[in-house]
Design goal:
Protein name: HTH tetR-type domain-containing protein
Shape: elongated
InterPro entries: Homeodomain-like_sf
Number of domains: 2
Distance between the termini: 63 Å
Number of helices: 9
Strand content: under 5%
Order of helices and strands: HHHHHHHHH
Helix content: over 70%
C-alpha cells in the first residue's frame, strides 16, 4: 500500500513524464526513469499503475476531457472568436499540450482525441449549414482543419491571423455549392 494519495503520485508522474518527453521518445522512457524523476519508489508506481502506458493514457484522457469541457463552454458563433478563445483556453498549458501532441501511442494519442472532440463540435454546427458533400466528410474536414489551426497557433503563435484565415476558408467552403 502507498502512503501517498493517488492524486499526488499522478501529479508527480505526469510532471516526470512530460519532462522526460522533452528529451526522450516515449518508447525509450522507463518506469525507473519516471520513478526517479518523480521521487517515488517503484512499489508506489506499481500500486497505482500497471505500466508507463497507463500513466500516459490517464494524462491524455485528462487533457482530452479538459479540451471537451473547454469546447462545451465556448459559445462564440464567430469562427474567429471561437478559435481565439479556444487557443487562449489551451495556452496556459501549451507546453504540456504540445508535448503530448507529439506522442502517438494507439491508446493514448491526444491529437486523435482533440480531433474527436472537434468532430463532435462539427456535428453541432453542420446541421445549420446545407452542404453538397456527405456530413461525415464535412465533420472530418472541420476537425482536421481546426486541429491544424490550434496546433500551429500553439506552436508558432499568431492565433488571430490563423483564426481569420480559418474563418475565411470556412466561409469560402460553405459558400461554394
Amino acid at each position: 500500500m502507498s502512503d501517498l494519495p493517488k492524486s499526488t503520485v499522478a501529479s508527480r508522474l505526469y510532471k516526470a513524464l512530460i519532462t522526460s518527453l522533452h528529451t526522450t521518445d516515449f518508447v525509450e522512457i522507463s518506469v525507473n526513469q519516471l520513478c526517479k524523476q518523480a521521487d517515488l519508489p517503484r512499489s508506489t508506481f506499481y500500486f497505482y499503475y500497471a505500466d508507463k502506458l497507463a500513466v500516459l493514457e490517464e494524462l491524455v484522457h485528462l487533457y482530452a476531457t479538459q479540451f471537451d469541457e473547454l469546447m462545451a463552454t465556448l459559445s462564440e458563433p464567430d469562427v474567429d472568436a471561437f478559435l481565439q478563445a479556444l487557443y487562449t483556453g489551451l495556452s496556459g498549458d501549451a507546453d504540456t499540450v504540445k508535448t503530448l501532441l507529439d506522442v502517438h501511442e494507439p491508446s493514448a494519442d491526444l491529437g486523435h482525441e482533440y480531433r474527436e472532440v472537434l468532430r463532435k463540435r462539427a456535428a453541432q454546427l453542420l446541421p445549420q449549414v446545407q452542404l453538397c458533400v456527405p456530413a461525415e466528410f464535412a465533420k472530418e474536414l472541420y476537425a482536421t482543419n481546426a486541429f491544424t489551426a490550434i496546433d500551429w497557433a500553439l506552436r508558432h503563435g499568431e492565433p488571430e491571423a490563423i483564426a481569420k484565415f480559418m474563418n475565411s476558408l470556412a466561409q469560402n467552403v460553405i459558400a461554394t455549392k
